[in-house]
Design goal:
The complex is a heterodimer. Chain A is mainly α. Helix content of chain A is 74%, strand content 1%. Chain A contains 24 helices and two strands. A two-stranded antiparallel ribbon of chain A has the order 1-2. The longest helix of chain A is centred in the first third of the chain and has 34 residues, at 103-136. Chain A starts with a helix and ends with a helix. The longest helix of chain B is centred in the middle third of the chain and has 24 residues, at 55-78. The chains are: A mainly alpha, B mainly alpha. Chains A and B meet through helix 9, helix 19, helix 20, helix 21 and helix 24 of A and helix 1, helix 2, helix 4, helix 5 and helix 6 of B.
Chain lengths: 498, 170
């Protein structure tokens, strides 16, 4: 009963409801405008909401998150430009549908399916998080160290061009996370006598740089990409279509939630894998995939919204972000004196149920805003990049400055942005860097605790890892993950399995 | 999803099989960069223990070094005959527009502490919108003033962020 009261907090407070609605509405546009991303917006916004009440901040951010993931799909359908990475797969069939004059129908269908996906994700969060949380109480430094390493390497394997590039980016992030005074010994690391570096690099500054400034510079390459206008007709989808694709939606939502729940993976990977899965399992699509198959827009759009609920699971139960946005939300919770992890559900159940209730509310707003105002929407998202890029820089500057009112952070954000741009040009993903920055200090402190427990004896350290059942499972997962990236091992395994 | 032959095996979303201009040199620079980071990590605590402040940076930089060597080997496989061409690299990595824009951003960042946020941002918006949008001075001026007014209202009034006023005026 108490949990139900916490669940409905955002539903009964008009101010929180308004913030969620504003967040969802703004999120749809932010996600849709190519060049603006949810991660960028949330990382900029978070620096302003530090002084707010935690519920207010979470209501706004949850709305932006839900709306933004959905919004990316709209421009993928209308303009063939995915507004967000999670909408890349939507463009494969969404744009061909729009060219056939079915843009309205495609948007309507993706809205309903995104809603279904979002609700499945939230429901899974509500059911799975308390169970995982109970289990995670048994976790020690060993397990947290291993989960941290898995998080950094997993995103490295799934994003960018190669595992080597992913691992390189993740390790670079860990190095950035090491800058400053060592919290265990107060010894300076990579500070070179600079007072500004003593406190370390605030990871929100790194995020603003790598996601905001980098994206703005990358967009300079596509400055003159013309927008193709589409005709919008009927938006409310046919009931028969919803019924027909419901099973696929549920399957994609399950897949999306699962992928979202893996530390370090988010909606972009969930959408691509769900698209691939739908393509392989749909036997007789009305239209072939790639030329306007409805299954091709339903699978990724359901999966990416379902991944939101999934991404909250490791964040709230283990304190490990499921994706880049939840990584920022973790920062916000820390600032407000809350510690995400297995004890969060025991010590602050109101916060957990508030997040669940808020995400549910945001999904309802998504359905309302998604099925209305599409015609005005097409005008707004055509915002010229010549205006958008300078605005991103100004907003990134305020965001970087506002964290500690320190102008040097603006320069750091710019530096990270230029560095991120060069890395992107050579096929590196910036996501692993951010995960490395966030998880690096966690891996470091837990590793040292485990090593101290093993009396600084390397063989004892490894024996400890494999003799404990939970850490043994995690070590196996880590080895499989790395092994699957090595061609020789992979081929031998496949041959053996065959 | 595509896969590549040889180590490291990749699950790739957008694998580029062609060698990008300057990629080989860049991956070699990464090896040097990683080696420097390893040396800097070593300087923290040396090999004095496994739980010292320098242990994790040394692990991370070793991983960087190993990964960068594999990245370099990967680039060698892509197109062994490709020769370094500075002009092509510059065109690919640093097009004129980017150099101009980053320079403007740099001046903007340096100007904020002296001239304050509002004036610096307003000027930055006018210059960059004028150069990137190419719709003429009137439109650029109008959009810039409108944008900076909204930004000021939103961040100073609503979010109550204390924006830098600038030492030049005090």
């Amino acid at each position: 009963m108490e949990n139900l009261i916490y669940f409905t907090t955002a539903w009964l407070d008009p101010y929180l409801m308004l913030l969620t609605a504003i967040g969802t509405f703004a999120g749809i546009y932010v996600g849709a405008i190519p060049g603006l991303s949810v991660t960028m917006t949330v990382s900029i916004l978070i620096s302003f909401t530090f002084k707010w009440d935690v519920n207010d901040a979470l209501a706004l951010i949850a709305g932006i998150y839900v709306g933004g993931v959905y919004g990316g799909g709209r421009t993928a359908i209308l303009l063939n430009i995915p507004g967000a990475p999670s909408a890349i797969a939507t463009a494969f069939d969404g744009y061909p549908l729009a060219k056939k004059g079915l843009a309205g129908e495609a948007i309507g269908l993706t809205t309903v399916m995104s809603f279904i996906g979002g609700m499945v994700g939230v429901l899974t969060l509500a059911i799975a998080a308390p169970i995982i949380s109970d289990f995670a109480i048994k976790f020690t430094s060993r397990e947290y160290m291993l989960l941290g390493i898995i998080g950094v390497l997993l995103i490295g394997t799934l994003s960018g061009e190669s595992f080597a590039k992913g691992a390189m980016a993740g390790a670079l992030g860990v190095m950035i996370g090491m800058i400053g005074l060592d919290p265990m010994t107060a010894k300076a690391r990579f500070t070179y006598g600079s007072i500004n570096l003593m406190g370390g690099v605030p990871y929100i500054v790194a995020m603003i740089g790598f996601f905001g400034v980098t994206e703005a510079l990358v967009q300079l390459d596509n400055l003159k990409l013309p927008y193709v206008k589409q005709k919008i007709s009927k938006i409310i989808p046919n009931w028969s279509d919803v019924k027909k694709y419901f099973k696929l939606a549920l399957k994609s939502a399950g897949l999306g939630t699962l992928i979202g729940a893996l530390p370090g993976t988010g909606g972009d990977i969930a959408a691509l894998i769900a698209y691939d899965q739908a393509k392989r399992t749909t036997k007789n699509p009305e239209v072939p995939f790639g030329s306007g198959a409805k299954e091709g827009i339903i699978a990724p759009e359901t999966a990416n919204n379902a991944a939101i609920g999934g991404a909250f699971i490791p964040m709230l139960t283990l304190g490990i972000p499921g994706d880049a946005v939840t990584a920022i939300i973790i920062g916000a919770l820390y600032i407000h004196g809350l510690k995400p992890g297995p004890l969060l559900l025991i010590e602050t159940p109101h916060l957990f149920w508030f997040i669940v209730g808020n995400l549910t509310l945001a999904n309802i707003f998504l359905l309302i805003f998604g099925l209305t105002g599409v015609r005005i929407f097409t005008k707004i998202v055509e915002c010229p990049k010549g205006i958008l890029i300078p605005l991103i820089i100004v907003l990134s500057s305020i965001g970087a400055y506002a964290i500690q009112n320190n102008p040097i952070h603006i320069a750091w954000a710019l530096g990270f942005g230029v560095f991120g741009y060069i890395l992107k040009k050579y096929g590196f993903a910036v996501g692993p860097i951010i995960l490395g920055v966030i998880l690096g200090p966690m891996i470091d402190s837990n590793y040292r605790r485990v090593m101290m427990g093993a009396d600084q004896n390397i063989s004892q350290f490894f024996v400890d890892l494999v003799t404990n059942p939970i850490s043994f499972v995690l070590v196996c997962f880590l080895l499989i993950m790395i092994g699957s990236q090595i061609n020789f091992i992979r081929n031998k395994t496949l041959k053996f399995l065959r | 999803m595509a896969s590549s032959k040889g180590w490291p095996y990749t699950i790739s979303m957008n694998k580029s099989k062609k060698l990008r201009p300057g990629e080989k040199v860049f991956s070699f620079i990464l090896i040097i960069f990683s080696a420097i980071l390893f040396f800097e990590s070593y300087k923290i605590s040396g090999f004095s223990g496994l739980t010292t402040s320098g242990a994790m940076p040394m692990f991370a930089s070793t991983l960087m070094l190993i990964a960068s060597i594999f990245i370099f080997l990967e680039t060698l496989k892509k197109d062994p005959k490709n020769k370094f061409n500075l002009l092509k690299v510059t065109q690919y990595l640093l097009p004129k527009q980017l150099i101009f824009f980053v320079s403007v951003v740099l001046i903007y960042v340096l100007a904020i502490p002296y001239f304050g946020f509002t004036l610096s941002s307003g000027t930055f918006l006018i210059i960059s919108i004028l150069s990137l949008w190419e719709k003429g001075i009137v439109w650029s001026l109008g959009v810039s003033i409108f944008s900076i007014t909204i930004i000021y209202f939103l961040f100073r009034i609503i979010f109550q962020v204390i924006l830098p006023l600038g030492s030049f005026w005090s």
